Each structure stands twice: as C-alpha cells, then as structure tokens.
Sequence to fold (279 residues):
Amino acid sequence: MALYKMAEILKDAQQKHYGVGYFNAVNMEMTRACIGAAEACSSPIIIGTAEALLPYGAFEWLLPLMLRQAEAARVPVAVHLDHTYHFDTLMRGLRAGFGSVMYDGSRLPDHRENVRVSSEIVRIAHAMGVDVECELGSVGGLSDEQGRADAVIYTDPEDAKRFVDETGADFLAVSIGTQHGVYKAPPKLDIPRLRAIRGTVDVPLVLHGGSGLSDDDFRETVAGGISKINVFTDIVLAAQNAIAQHPQAGYTDLNLYAETAMREATEKKLRLFGSAGMA
Ligand code: 13P
Fold:
C-alpha cells in the first residue's frame, strides 16, 4: 500500500534536498515502467497524465489503473494530473479522483487572469482535499489547440512570492530556461533566478521540460531548490528507439521492448535526481 499524496513526497524531497521525477503515462506499460523503475532503485515517484494526452486515454479509466499499481507498489507513488488549461477539464480530473492537479494559466493573456483563475481552482480543489500546482511565467515548447506556440517567459522571483500568496498554490512550476519537448539548441538555465525564487517562496518548486538536460543541469537545479522534475519526451524516445531496433517483432512483443526501455530510461533519471534509495 504505497499510494501517497504528492505533497508528502515533495515535503521529504524538499527537506532532504533531492528531486523527485514526475512521468506521464497513457497506458499500462508506461505506468508499469515508471513504478518498476522506482522499485528497482528504491525511489519515490510521481506519475499521471495530462489534458493534452486525453486522446490516448481518458482520466476515468487511466486513473484506476494507476491507483491500483500505486497501491501495490513497494515505494511511495503519487498520482497527479499534469497540465490542464480549461476549468471543465480540471473539474473532470477532480471528479475522477486525482490526489493533486496542475492548473496551467500561463497561456492566459494577462497575469491577473492567471491569478484569478488559479485562485478559484485552488479554492475548489482544496475544499475537495486536492492540492494544486500552478505555473507562473511560461515554460514554452508546447502549443495550444490552434497550434499557437507557448511563449517563453521567465518567472520573476518577486512575482512568484505574490502569486503563491494570492492563489494559495501548493506547488509552483517555474520557468528558468527549460522547454517542453526536444531542444533545438542546448538550454541555458538561469540558476541564479531559480535560487532567487527559492529564496522568496516556501512551496515545492517544479521544473517542467526535464528531457534533454545534462547531468549537471539536474544537479544544479536540484541544488538550486527544485523538488519535482517533469519528464516525458526522453522516455517516449527511449520506447521509440527500442521499437525501431526490433522491426520484425509483433505488436505484443514491441510493447514489452518499449516497456523495458522506458523502465531503464526512467531509472536513470531517478538516480540522477538523487531520489534513488530515498523510498
Ligand atoms: P518533456 O517532454 O520536455 O520532458 O517535458 C515534460 C513535462 O514537463 C511534462 O509536464
């Protein structure tokens, strides 16, 4: 029985200065790969899905699958809903039963609107016993339904404090130079900015766009105050690579090759983040 709240997992990470990986999953193999990796290195882990991944799996059937595997795991596992942009989708996530949710208001045209909607969502989620991650600034690298690319806006440390105070957010996603997806050029992370944000707010800080970063990037961001690191692209690429290496294999075997590759890729990240051995 190892289902934990994300807040419990991140509290320990914050106190002991290590990072915990968050990994998106859209099926049983991805979920099993994540939890298997965490068990293999005695690490806590956070898994979940997101609004943009809805076409691959509805919250309502994916969540029971994740909860069941989390409960049976030998390590702490939290099940979290990543990036949602619409009030209705977030409410659907609450109804489905996620232990924590992310509302991403970074696409809204003005900052006050992000504060207003985030506050409203925090109030509703808290009344249901659910914690909320919000984003300030904009990480970028994703695009909306109209295909418009998300802006990259670095998080301002003073704004971060006001934002957390005003919204009541439990976790803060910050923009310090990472982007979602595959990088066209190596990212340059603003670690002094991260340290300044860490100095102004108490809640756990979240780094999105965790794929394609160097080992040093991870060490510096965790040392600079990041507690949760979101990774998706690198794990999917590991699966794709494994599938490409077995062109003759049948569909069911391909699933297993992909699962093994995703488990290995996930374990590597957990070891880098410093969470191995912390379960
Ligand atoms: P990557 O796909 O760049 O790893 O980003 C994942 C992420 O931040 C999910 O929220």
Residues 130 and 223 are 28 Å apart (CA to CA). The chain has a mean pLDDT of 96. Residues 6-273 form a domain with the TIM Barrel fold (CATH 3.20.20.70).
